[in-house]
Amino acid sequence: MIYTITFNPSLDYVIQVDHFKPGIINKTKFEEILPGGKGINVSIVLSNLGHESTALGFMAGFTGKEIEHKLESYGAKTDFIHVKKGLSRINVKMKSDEETEINGMGPDIQPEDIQELFNQLDTLTEKDVLVISGSIPSTLPDTMYEQIIERVQEKKIKVVVDATNNLLLKVLKYKPFLIKPNNHELGEIFNVELNTRDEVIPYAKKLQEMGAQNVLISMAGQGAVLVSDNNEVIQSKAPKGIVVNSVGAGDSMVAGFLAGYLETGNYEKAFINGLCCGSASAFQVGLATKEDVENVKKTLSEN
Ligand SMILES: Nc1ncnc2c1ncn2[C@@H]1O[C@H](COP(=O)(O)OP(=O)(O)OP(=O)(O)O)[C@@H](O)[C@H]1O
Ligand SMILES: O=P(O)(O)OC[C@@]1(O)O[C@H](CO)[C@@H](O)[C@@H]1O
C-alpha cells in the first residue's frame, strides 16, 4: 500500500479574477473548490492512475469533513486523525494577471493526535511506500519529518519526501528513496540561482551525496532533471501546452514518477510519466487523469 501524509490538508478555493486590484472589491469570473494539500494531491493522482493509496494526516471541522468526502470520491482510501480544535484550512489560489496564493493556518494539533499518527505508522510493513509532503502547521514540532522517518527506518520501506529547506535537509541522512524539490528550492538550499537544467545537475548530485537515493528536480515550464541511484542523469524539457492551474503540478509529478516506477522499475519511464503527469495537471483546473497523461506523452514525442 502507498501511504501519503498531509499534515495540513486544505480546501483549495481556485478563482479567476480579471485584473485583480488590491484595496477594492474584485469579482470572480470562475470558481471551483478542490481537495488540496500535497499528500492528498498525490493520493488523487495515484487513484487516477489506477494505484491504491491511503491518505493519512490531520483533519478538523466541516472543512475537514468536506476534504475527506471529496478525496474519497476519487477512490482514494482515507484514515485521517480528527483533531478537536480548529478547522482544516481553506487556501485561496487566485489566477489573474499573476498567480497569487493565500494559504490558511490549519487546526490545533495536540500531542495525542501526533501519537495517533505514530501508532498508524507502526502498522506499516516493508512492502509499503510512504510519501511525506507539504508544510508543517505551527502547532507541530519542526522535527516532525525526522521523527516519522526515524520511526519507520527499521522497516526499510521506500520513503518519498517533498518538502523545503531544513525539513528536507534534516531527512537526507535517512536515505529517502526519492526527494523532489523544485529548482528554486534547490537553489535556496545552496544559496544560488538555478535557471537551467544543466545548472541544476551538480546541485542535485550534492543532495544525492548527502543521502537521497534519487533526486528529482522539477522546473515548471523548463521541465525536470533526475539524478538516479544508478548514476544516471535524465533530463527533459517540459511538454508544450497552455497552463491553466499549476497548483499541484509538483505533487502530480511525484505521483506519476512513483506510479511509473512501481509499474516498470525503470527510472526513465518513471521520469517521463512524472513529467507528463505534472504538465497534464498544469494544463487544467483539476489534477491529471491517466488519459490526460497519455495525451501529453504523445505531444512530448512530437516536440
Ligand atoms: N508551465 C508549465 N508548462 C509545462 N509543464 C509544466 C509547467 N508548470 C509545471 N509543469 C510540469 O509540472 C512539473 C512540476 O512543476 P513545478 O516545478 O512547478 O512543481 P512545484 O514547484 O513542486 O509545483 P507545486 O508546488 O505548485 O505543486 C514540471 O516539471 C513540469 O513537468
Ligand atoms: O502549505 P503546503 O503544504 O506547503 O502547501 C499546500 C498547498 O499549497 O500545496 C498544494 C499544491 O502543491 C495545494 O493543494 C495546497 O493548497
UniProtKB/TrEMBL annotation:
Residues 8-289 form the Carbohydrate kinase PfkB domain. GO terms for cellular component: cytosol. Gene3D superfamilies: 3.40.1190.20. One of its GO terms (molecular function) is ATP binding. InterPro entries: 1-PFruKinase, Carboh/pur_kinase_PfkB_CS, PfkB_dom, Ribokinase-like, Tagatose/fructose_Pkinase. Keywords: ATP-binding, Kinase, Lactose metabolism, Nucleotide-binding, Transferase. One of its GO terms (biological process) is D-tagatose 6-phosphate catabolic process. It catalyses: beta-D-fructose 1-phosphate + ATP = beta-D-fructose 1,6-bisphosphate + ADP + H(+); D-tagatofuranose 6-phosphate + ATP = D-tagatofuranose 1,6-bisphosphate + ADP + H(+). It is an enzyme of class 2 (transferase). Pathway: Carbohydrate metabolism; D-tagatose 6-phosphate degradation; D-glyceraldehyde 3-phosphate and glycerone phosphate from D-tagatose 6-phosphate: step 1/2. SUPFAM superfamilies: Ribokinase-like. Its EC number is 2.7.1.144. Pfam families: PfkB. Catalyzes the ATP-dependent phosphorylation of fructose-l-phosphate to fructose-l,6-bisphosphate. Belongs to the carbohydrate kinase PfkB family. LacC subfamily. This is Tagatose-6-phosphate kinase. It comes from Holdemanella biformis DSM 3989. The lineage of its organism: Bacteria, Bacillati, Bacillota, Erysipelotrichia, Erysipelotrichales. The gene is pfkB.
